[in-house]
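pinging the channel bc i need a second pair of eyes. not urgent but kinda urgent?? the chain im working w is below, pasted from the shared doc
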Amino acid sequence: MMSSDRRRQLAQLLVVRGSGHSRDGQRRYPRWELTNTELKRLLEQGVGGVILLGGSAEELRLRCAQLQAWANQPLLLCADVEEGVGQRFEGASWLVPPLAIGRLHQRDPELAEQLAERYGRCTGRQARLLGLNWVLGPVCDVNNNPANPVINVRAWGENPATAGCLAAAFVRGCQAEGVLACAKHFPGHGDTSTDSHLELPLIPHSRERLEAVELPPFRQAIAAGVASVMTAHLQLPALDQQRPATLSAAVLTDLLRRDLGFGGLVVTDALVMEAITRQYGAAEAAVLAFEAGADLILMPADADAALRGMEQAVDSGRISQARVEQSLARRAAGLQRCPANPDASLDQVLDALGGLVEPNERQLGTSLLTLSLEHQGGQVLPAGSGINLIRLDTQLNTPQLPAMAPALLRPATVGYQARLIDRRSPSPWSGDSQAPLALEHLGEGPVLLQLLVRGNPFRGSAGGDEPWPQVVRQLLAAGRLAGLAVYGSPYLWEQLRDLLPPELPGAYSPGQMPQAQAVVLDALGLAADALEGGFTD
């Protein structure tokens, strides 16, 4: 085989990162999102997939068409849309995090399973309509560690039975719409207290423990026909004392392929994550992952270096041509499961996008918010001059809090002035572990405390290390706590809820998006403002 033909074959097994926006200047994360010149060059060379983030639904539809036009083969076009396509692309459905349904499953298993399948159908249908053919979900990790900084509410359950049942239901719904689903992060990232985006977590459990807790959800997703499985960047000494799971044949070939019988696509988690890049170069990481049993190399730190490394490994005999053909065949089989979007006129595309969110999908989003809402105490905040103290992970690129967000507008209507803090904000903190808020710098009047706290990649914490119980006690002691709203982590809500007097209004939603804020603030007695627009439906 000529070197150029081999290179093009190997390029099909790479998935690189691009922005959902069409212009280079609009990229949110230039460190990882390739320029259009780089993307076009790599796609012309045969690179077989792109993972996308950012932009509106309409932009994504045009972007997918543009990328496919640059390539001379069908592409795998994917996104991390674990909470609905609207989580990443504005205008589509942004649904409550999966753990909300996982908690409902404890009360009403049949309803929860139905909702999980509808969740998958909504995600798959909208993804396909916008040009994606691969959804990087469901998360099959069992979130049995409340301190998990990266999985948290992204999981479908806190025990294996719930996580497996609901993940399988999502797979059935999603793939029924003609897109591929992806069970992740194999063999299980739920019981970690560190984030693999930042370092390599160690999982000390035995094989027996993995069989009892971590593996059952993956078995159920595989039984449901899931098209792909994503690896986890974890160290599991019980399976491989030398290499992380993503680079381990004991994990990907022996356990996943042989023992669990998975015959579909195996894709690495992003190789640009520091759990990998701290120890391995781009070329060696790609080769080791492929040797271990991965078919697709996701987001190598350097796509050109990864491709050169793969080519050299085949030329030297380190990787056999037969092994390459296996992965190419799995990729082709995956694409055959995804009917291509037919060419359409601009008017047809616009008509389709006009009906992007169907009435039943809108009703699903509303039902999930209502079913997962928790509320206690009174319903009316005292009017007058006060402080609306909002905690965010970061104040930059925050889709949860646009200018017209209910969390900002509604308290303002009764006199509460917004004060935003994030994890790097020193200004409100006193340094006193028992009274951590510097109340003299905060301002006068009652305080509405709104906490947007959850596990997220790159945060390194699920918020449990922040002194919010002490803050609540301090505000109560000063007679200044007017109400509490928690968005995201159920673990923080459960911790703070028990501190509230019965009459004090408090509410929780697992969602953080504006629609979740509207539902929570309705429960607290703060009526909708006309400026909110679509955030109230």
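so Residues 248 and 280 are 13 Å apart (CA to CA). and The two ends are 59 Å apart (CA to CA). — does that match what u expected or am i reading it wrong
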